Amino acid sequence: MPITPRLNLDPILPQPMYPQAIFVRGRVGYAYIMRQYGFTRRISKYCYPYDPRNPYSLGNRNRFAAAVEYWQGFDQPTRHYYNIMKYPNVMSGYNRYISFYIKSVEAVPVFPEVDFKLYGKRIYGDFYWGDS
Questions:
Q1: CA terminus-to-terminus distance, the chain
Q2: Is the sign of the CA dihedral 107, 127, 47, 38 positive or negative?
Q3: Would you tell me which of 14, 37, 67, 119 could form a disulfide with 21, CB atoms 3.0–4.6 Å apart?
Q4: Nearest to residue 30, comparing CAs of 52, 12, 8?
Q5: Are 26 and 34 in contact (CB under 8 A)?
């Protein structure tokens, strides 16, 4: 009796038997994302956060915006200092400064002035908003 491999293929994702899957790159609709790294192809499902405006996400966005604003305010010698640094990784000065800033500054949750009873009960970490 010949041995046949068992394939557990997800019906939502395109399979290698479809020729159009060879040429597709990036996000296809809101179902999946196709990536290629060298000769390796990876297919993953498209994920969207449940609530992209929660306080922790807003805090992280504010922290990143502050880092970009500081970088744009630097003079040329300061930017050159970050550009010539080679340790621990080889990267641009902009990316290095953003990385240092993000690691050194703690993200503070932003609690917008909104009546959360309009949104119902949502749980963010240890906080409960809405009807208690």
A1: 64
A2: positive
A3: 14
A4: 12
A5: yes
Instruction: Give the whole-angstrom CA distance, residue 75 versus residue 95.
Output: 16
Please tell me the predicted confidence (pLDDT) of residue 41.
Answer: 81
Question: Which pTM does this prediction carry?
Answer: 0.53
Q: Are 120 and 131 in contact (CB under 8 A)?
A: yes
What number of CA atoms fall less than 13 Å from residue 128's CA on the CB side?
A: 3
Calpha distance 54→113 (Å, rounded)? 13
Q: CA 129, CA 132: separation in Å to the nearest integer?
A: 7
DSSP β-ladder status, 122-124 and 40-45: unpaired
Q: Is 15 helix (H, G, I), strand (E, B) or coil?
A: coil
- Tens-digit pLDDT profile for residues 68-85: 999 999 999 999 999 998
